[in-house]
Amino acid sequence: MNLALPPLPPPPEALRRLIEHLPTQPPSLLLAIGLNRALLPKLDAEARNGLSGQCVEVHVSDFGVRFRLELGPRGFAPASARASVAMRIRAPADIFWRLAQGSEDADTLFFERKLVMEGDTELGLLLKNTLDAIGPLVPELLARRA
Asked: How far apart are CA 118 and CA 90, in angstroms?
C-alpha cells in the first residue's frame, strides 16, 4: 500500500528563487541523517566503494531545495561547498516521494522526463541499481498507517 502525501503547494516563485540561493548545508545535514538510518545499513561493500567520495546533488525543483551529499567512511554527510558534483538528480517532491515508496520506476520517470539525472553515467547507474536492489526506503510501518 502506498502512502499518499497530501499535495503540498510549492512556495510562491519569489520565495522558491530565494530558497534556491540559500546554503545547502542545513538541509543536506538533515537528509544525511535520514540516509544514514534508512539507507546506509543496507548498502553492500560494492555500493559503498562506488559511492564513496562522490558528491551527489539532489534538487527538489518545485521547492527550490538542494541537497549536496557525499558518502564517507562514517556515512553520508553534507558535501563541502568546494566539492565537484559528480551527479545531479532533479525532480518535483512528489516524484521523489513516489520513488522512495517504490510506487514508481526510476527508468520510466527518467524517460518521461519527470526525473532528470545529469553527470557521471556510471555513478547514476550504480545509484539506481543499488536503490532498486534495496527496495522502497519508506518504512513499511509508515506505509501501513495510510
From this structure: 9
DSSP letter assigned to residue 41:
G
What gap in Å lies between CA 114 and CA 119, rounded to an integer?
A: 17
Give how many domains the chain has, as a whole number.
Answer: 1
Longest dimension (CA), the chain: 43
Encode the chain (146 residues) as per-residue pLDDT tens digits. Answer: 455 556 667 777 777 676 666 656 788 998 999 899 889 999 999 999 999 999 999 999 988 889 999 999 999 999 988 899 999 999 999 898 888 888 888 889 999 999 999 999 999 999 988 888 888 877 644 544 44
CATH of the domain at 64: 3.30.1050.10
Domain holding 74, by residue range, is 13-144
Looking at residue 82, its amino acid is R
- Full-prediction pTM beyond 0.90? no
